[in-house]
């Protein structure tokens, strides 16, 4: 009896579309009603509803579509094979290019290391050359052995700067 009352209350709470109607039925009290699970329709029911026929048709249509999807004819297999071979070719080509790039990067790193080492050696040699030069010794050899002297003020000739940054001498400098 209580199950019938709950079932009829459930029908009154729903519209014909199956949506619940909110606020139409109010349960008084603090106890929630116990819900009973819906019973599955028995397969030996004599009459089928139209909704059952639609679900059977839909399931039959789904099954048929799945069978069509699983069926592979010769052109499909050939196209699938060609696509697979092409994809494999692209993957192998990609791996080849990637390994080539990696090898070039390692080569660049090796050359950069070698360049840094050569720069360090060059700087060390330049420093040793600059420290080995004794300017006092050069002055003594130039003045005593070679007879060189500093230029006097009347021996220095100044030229105006032309468009180019250097002066070409086409003839001897005149003596005053």
Automatic annotation (TrEMBL):
Pfam families: DivIC. The chain crosses the membrane at residues 74-95. Keywords: Cell cycle, Cell division, Coiled coil, Membrane, Transmembrane, Transmembrane helix. Residues 1-62 are annotated as: Disordered. Residues 101-135 form a coiled coil. The keyword Transmembrane applies. It comes from the Bacteria. One of its GO terms (biological process) is cell division. Residues 45-55 have a biased composition (Basic and acidic residues). This is Cell division protein FtsL.
């Amino acid at each position: 009896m209580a199950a019938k009352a709950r079932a009829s209350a459930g029908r009154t709470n729903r519209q014909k579309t199956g949506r619940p109607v909110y606020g139409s039925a109010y349960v008084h009290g603090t106890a929630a009603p116990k819900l009973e699970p819906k019973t599955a329709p028995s397969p030996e029911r004599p009459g089928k509803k139209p909704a059952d026929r639609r679900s059977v048709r839909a399931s039959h249509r789904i099954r048929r579509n799945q069978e069509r999807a699983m069926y592979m004819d010769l052109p499909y297999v050939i196209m699938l094979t060609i696509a697979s071979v092409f994809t494999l070719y692209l993957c192998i080509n990609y791996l080849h290019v990637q390994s080539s790039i990696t090898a070039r990067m390692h080569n660049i790193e090796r050359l950069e290391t070698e360049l840094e080492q050569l720069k360090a050696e060059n700087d060390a040699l330049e420093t040793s050359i600059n420290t080995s030069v004794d300017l006092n010794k050069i002055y003594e050899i130039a003045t005593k052995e070679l007879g060189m002297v500093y230029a006097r003020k009347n021996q220095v000739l100044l030229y105006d700067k032309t468009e180019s940054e250097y002066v070409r001498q086409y003839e001897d400098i005149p003596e005053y």
